[in-house]
Design brief:
By secondary structure, the protein is of the alpha/beta class. Helix content is 57%, strand content 9%. The chain folds into three domains: 84 residues, SRP54, nucleotide-binding domain (Four Helix Bundle (Hemerythrin (Met), subunit A), Up-down Bundle); 196 residues, Rossmann fold (3-Layer(aba) Sandwich); 126 residues, Signal recognition particle, SRP54 subunit, M-domain (434 Repressor (Amino-terminal Domain)), CATH 1.10.260. It contains 21 helices and eight strands. α2 packs antiparallel against α3, α6 packs parallel to α7 and α8 packs parallel to α9.
């Protein structure tokens, strides 16, 4: 996420922090470099101009120039302004005191709108809300089927429109049904188009007038850069938006959409999609994103994801086993499954402060999870509990059963022994000297 921009800003920051004293000329030089970095990130030019002016006003003041560490103060000013540019704080969905809360999802085709409806439904369901998904895109049959598939996977009800083909009537009937069934939230998946057109806007205006949604969320593809902000502004002018959902953030190395869209529309980014899976969806925290952007990690989101994935009782049980040195391959397999629930390893590493520097160039092979699990599954219960008994013939059988090579089984056993030693040190309060994060998961670099 924002890899290109992160690299440029880091270089600028290191240059500033390396100077004992700052003059106005130094600030101006830094601002020029920041301007270039933001242009390369595809941030809208008016947004860049306002952003740099805000920094200039604060950075050339006495507080920064006469500070004991002016370089660090300058970096803090830039960081604070980046947070303000992205938004004042986390803003989720406002739930109506009188159910159902009606959320209208709008956006262009290909932005990930239908999948986002499912992700939002999952998030709200986790929060204890009773959700109804409504397929109001009558022009793309696949959208209706996709929403039904998502509903079955999430165990969330999907409104069945029958032979009705009018999107406005579908939405009205769905709201009526939601009131009858005492649904807490209704999510309307409206039609997208390849581009903005009058017909699409008129349809959205009619749906808005008919059902009076509490929230209209615009789903934007982050990889479109500042163009996403321009399209969002068009939608806002036409129907009035309450917030933005940015999808495909995991593939956005530049950051132009995220850094432009709040300023251009005046509306907050409420959620971000960080992958294809339904759990790859987060409430947008500007301060956490800036922290991730500048390789200072995002420990709070990491903790949130860990708490979501891990069962407290199981965690205590595991701690007891580690202390008694009883950690076995069954436990290891369980931990792998828990980690997979949290998201991609590359994403998790981006939340650990300084990890991108430490692991620069390392690409984690996500498929290695499946290979390791296959090897463990090919072991007998006895072997999983007594790894030291796995001899040459057993290694061959495990490799054959898991579709892997004998040397992979040998490597897994060796790394498992090393991990058990490391866990023993942790449980006794001793910190291990080093940890190869790339090794066990096929890191390449």
């Amino acid at each position: 996420m924002f890899e290109t921009l992160s690299g440029r800003l880091e270089a600028i920051y290191n240059k500033i922090k390396g100077r004992g004293k700052l003059k106005e000329a130094d600030v101006e030089e830094a601002l020029k470099e920041i301007r270039v970095a933001l242009i390369e990130a595809d941030v809208a030019l008016p947004v860049i101009a306002d952003f740099l002016e805000q920094i200039r006003e604060k950075a050339v003041g006495q507080e920064v120039l006469e500070s004991l560490t002016p370089g660090h103060m300058m970096v803090k000013v830039v960081n604070d302004e980046l947070v303000l540019l992205l938004g004042d704080g986390a803003v989720g969905v406002e739930i109506s005191p009188e159910p159902p809360t009606i959320i209208l999802m709008a956006g262009l085709q290909g932005s990930g709108k239908t999948t986002t409806c499912g992700k939002l439904a999952r998030l709200l369901k986790k929060d204890g809300k009773n959700v109804l998904l409504v397929p109001a895109d009558v022009y793309r049959p696949a959208a209706i089927e996709q929403l039904n598939v998502l509903g079955r996977e999430l165990e969330v009800d999907v409104f069945q429109a029958g032979d009705e083909k009018d999107p406005v009537a579908i939405c009205k009937n769905a709201i009526k049904k939601a009131r009858q069934d005492v649904k807490g939230v209704v999510i309307l998946d409206t039609a997208g188009r390849q581009q903005v057109d009058d017909e699409l806007m008129e349809e959205l205006r009619k749906i808005k007038g008919a059902v009076e949604p509490h929230e209209i969320l615009f789903v934007a593809d982050a990889m479109m850069g500042q163009q996403a902000a321009d399209v969002a502004k068009t939608f806002h002018d036409a129907v009035g938006l309450d917030g933005i959902v940015l999808t495909k953030m995991d593939g956005d190395a530049r950051g132009g959409a995220a850094l432009s869209i709040k300023s251009v529309t005046g509306k907050p980014i409420k959620f971000i999609g960080t992958g294809e899976k339904l759990d790859a969806f987060e409430v947008f925290h500007p301060d956490r994103i800036v922290s991730r952007m500048l390789d200072m990690g995002d420990v709070l989101t990491f903790i949130d994801k860990a708490q979501e994935a891990y069962d407290l009782e199981e965690s205590k049980k595991l701690q007891r086993k580690i202390k008694k040195n009883e950690f076995d391959f069954d436990d290891f397999r369980d931990q792998l499954r828990q980690i997979k629930k949290m998201g991609s390893m590359q994403q998790m590493l981006s939340m650990i402060p300084g990890a991108s520097k430490m692991l620069k160039g390392v690409q984690v092979d996500e498929s290695q999870f499946s290979r390791i699990e296959a090897m463990i599954n090919s072991m007998t219960p006895y072997e999983r509990a007594n790894h030291q008994m796995i001899n040459t013939s057993r290694k061959k059988r495990i490799a054959q059963g898991s579709g892997t090579q004998v040397n992979e089984v040998k490597r897994l056993l060796k790394q498992f022994v090393q991990m058990k030693k490391m866990m023993k040190k942790f449980s006794s309060g001793k910190m291990p000297r080093g940890l190869n994060l790339g090794g066990m998961l096929g890191g390449k670099g």
